[in-house]
TrEMBL record:
Signal peptide stretch: none
InterPro entries (UniProt xref): Acetolactate_synth/TF_NikR_C, ACT-like_dom_sf, FeFe-hyd_TM1266
Source organism per UniProt: Peptostreptococcus russellii
Protein name (database record): Iron-only hydrogenase system regulator
Amino acid sequence: MNKRVAVISAILESPLACQSDFNNIVSEYKDIVRGRMGIPFEKEGISVVSITVLGTLDEINGLTGRLGSIEHVTVKTAISKKEAICL
């Protein structure tokens, strides 16, 4: 199984409107999520979330695509070129 490490960065431009959908989708991919950091910018009315994952390209792209389809969410993903060795 070819797996890669990736970092998914997301900006929630209206957190109250979209964080429930965002969290539900991330929880569906809990098997590939290795870490998550969220930083609220209360004055600005946005939140920034960084999710580190280890998964196949299909899993990573699936998560990225689903998160990016949420209204008020902007997503970018950086995927390692090197495949991870998974035993």
